[in-house]
Amino acid sequence: MLSTTQLTEFDREYLWHPYTSFTNPSPVFPVRRAQGVHIELADGKKLIDGMSSWWSVLHGYNHPAINKAITDQLHQVAHVMFAGFTHEPAAKLAKTLVEITPTGLNKVFFSDSGSVAVEVAMKMAIQYWYSQGQAQRTTFLALKQGYHGDTFGAMSVCDPHSGMHHLFHQSLTHHLFAEAPSCKFDEKFDERSFANFSQLLQRNRQKIAAVILEPIVQGAGGMHFYSPVFLQRVRELCNQLDVLLIADEIATGFGRTGKLFACEFANISPDIMCIGKALTGGYITLAATLCNDKVSDGISNGKSSVFMHGPTFMANPLACAAANASIDLLIKTDWQKKVARIETQLKQELEDCRTLAAVADVRVLGAIGVVELKEAANVAELQPKFVELGIWVRPFGKLVYLMPPFIINEQELRQLTSGIKTVLAPMA
Ligand SMILES: *Cc1c(COP(=O)(O)O)cnc(C)c1O
């Protein structure tokens, strides 16, 4: 076993972490184990998790039901190629996903990560039009301030300027970007906020394969919550002009926003939907792309009838077993009540942050609480202060945000919100 000093040394010497410098990395905290909402560090300090390990941990860490599902599956088969074989965890999961996602999404394609699920969605849309004899339709219409992942296709539909990938701009396929929805979630809808999107779609419809967007919550692109009417208008116009709609629910899926899927706020169903992150309850990487009959039949009956994608670890049985257990837990427990309780408490307790000098805005939707600062936060400086207070909060740009596991109790959540106030209060 490595000593903590060795661990830290090896990490510094050999490892890259997300979005960090290799030569001048920000500090990392060695984790020994995690249980429920607590992440335990090597020195024994326990942190209350405010991040759900990036939207993914719903039922807490080390959950007996998910542990058992994976262990049972491990003794059957850990992995088997998905070409020419099938297995119960995948078949069961696909059926469940079709049942719980918006009506009409009837076919499931499994892949390894959210970004790949977005690549698959984009390929489905392109191949759909190819099959219809409209091979020229390869452009996507996305939203500014959107985020869809880190691989090349996904990067090409992320916000081209403020997004994390602008330095790759020259090597990306250029798509179309509509103004981000300016009408906020709880505001009365202003039709003018749809004008730019509408104009772009109408002008370019002949070359557009699909619209791709994050429904209701624009996540890593700024944590903005927009009006469900905007999403309704998008669906209506896509229907009218016969353009496919891809909903990226990778962050919003599985109850995080207060609905099982954010599309439900607008009562719409996309043609293609991507899910990931919370799919396995934060246990193992797994993602899926679902589509409706129009897309699957369109591809199958067309010029190129075979959908051209097939990851090595497609529908990994351990991951599918974890997902089945996680979704079971979610559906069986009263998740709506839990999320509503978190939402109420976040609204009450984060509201005070509004009066702090460093704070520009406070907003809450479902189990997502956002404190937007006036200036970008210095993570290297803030992070140790949060850890000192026994909480795990990881600021990002101007955003200090909370999205705790649904099992968090009132007192633990209060520790998170008051920790944020304590750390932000002295900032100018
Ligand atoms: C995180 C995220 C992705 C990418 O998922 P990975 O699993 O990190 O590849 C794509 N879209 C949205 C909306 C996300 O939040």
Give the secondary structure arrangement, pairings included.
Elements: H1 4-14, E1 31-35, E2 38-41, E3 46-49, H2 52-55, H3 64-74, H4 88-100, E4 105-111, H5 114-131, E5 139-143, H6 152-156, E6 176-178, H7 195-204, E7 208-213, E8 217-218, E9 224-225, H8 228-241, E10 244-248, E11 272-275, E12 287-292, H9 293-300, H10 317-332, H11 335-350, E13 359-365, E14 368-373, H12 379-388, E15 391-392, E16 399-402, H13 410-424
Parallel strand pairs: 3-15, 5-6, 5-7, 7-10, 10-11
Antiparallel strand pairs: 1-2, 2-3, 4-12, 8-9, 11-12, 13-14, 14-16
The structure holds pyridoxal-5'-phosphate.
The site of pyridoxal-5'-phosphate has 15 residues, from helix 5.
